[in-house]
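Researcher: Next sequence.
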Amino acid sequence: MSDWDDIPDSLATELRRTTAELMRRLPSYADDMLEYIVERIPEVANDDELRGLTLGSCSSNLEAALSMLRNGIDVSAAVAPVTALEHARAMAARGHSVDVMLRFYRLGHAYASERILARLDDLVPDPALTVELVSRLQSYAFAYIDRISSEVAAEYMAELDRLQNRARAARTDAVRRLLAGDRIDLRRAESTLSHRLTGWQTAFVCWSDRDDADLARVGRAVGARLGSDHPLLVPDGTQTLWGWTATASAPTITRAVLTPLGTQLPASVRISLGRPAQGPTGFRDSHAQALRTRRIIELGGRQAPVTSYDEIALVDVLAGDLDLARAFVSAELGALATAGRREDEERQALLAVLDAQGGLATAADALGIHRNTVLQRVRRAEERRGRRATERVAELHAALRLADVLGNAVLTTEETPSP
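Model: Next structure:
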């Protein structure tokens, strides 16, 4: 109510007198309200600072509501007292949920209904006015709590954002310093990151071309697969996530381990993993390998959902300078370095034979084709290359591996003359 025009003079007079009387008893009511709340929210009981803020909030809210009501001030003018806002910030800082924080106000309203309004019979000499008076007080109390709880909830969320932003900034700075190889306080860094920096560190990178991909969920799945239920996850923009696991022993990173993980991923997501390595240095080195693995994946357009550094380590070393790698492939493969379906079949056959150390049957099993088909393709590959497969075997094997992983990034689109 903004004034007293809509109520009888007798009721307005009684409201002023009753609210004045309640205000004189305010310290007692505030103490009693605190105990009422503490009994029902045990989080307050052993926290002296929070208990003090709760008492201050009880007192200041009771005083504000009663004073506004006594002076006919509309509830829309109510603002949250300073102690109430500080109480909200303290709840956010302690990690209590917004629902727990709002329970204070619901319980405060319940206290007012049970303990204060129920005693008005003792304060109001005219019983005929009691029912109307209680109704007015109850309506005002509800409207006041509704307004103030919205304000303190907004302050709680603002403080939570501030805390999270500071935590993210601290985490990002700790990660940056670790990756830069700066001297750091190990225990402090572990506390900031909530991540153990001793033992084995395995880094991974998750990325997607979609902004709505749930990379945090993917990161947790990768961590679980590598033996950590709480991996360190650090967003790098909206489409990339860096991650690390800390384990007592080096996790096994094989195709058999990674394949089931790939089946759980959204189609748009790719993952690269570094090798497990120990301590802060391992934290940095494994991450660098995961980033280089991503580079190779993107250069070659690799479609596998999960790729470990071990799978592309040789290519990473050989492709540090892509122009040199392209020239090397061209020189070693000749016309076989041309992009095309037949050339690809021949390169795959020749690579499978070299991987099998010359075993045609093993190569045929790996490719899923007949042994004679492998032999025919190898012979055609030798003709395109202009050399037998037994010449410069190490270089041939490396060039074929580069072509297999990087594809068009190191192949030519026109036939290259044989050397």
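Model: The longest helix spans residues 127-180. Confidence is low (pLDDT under 50) at residues 415-419.
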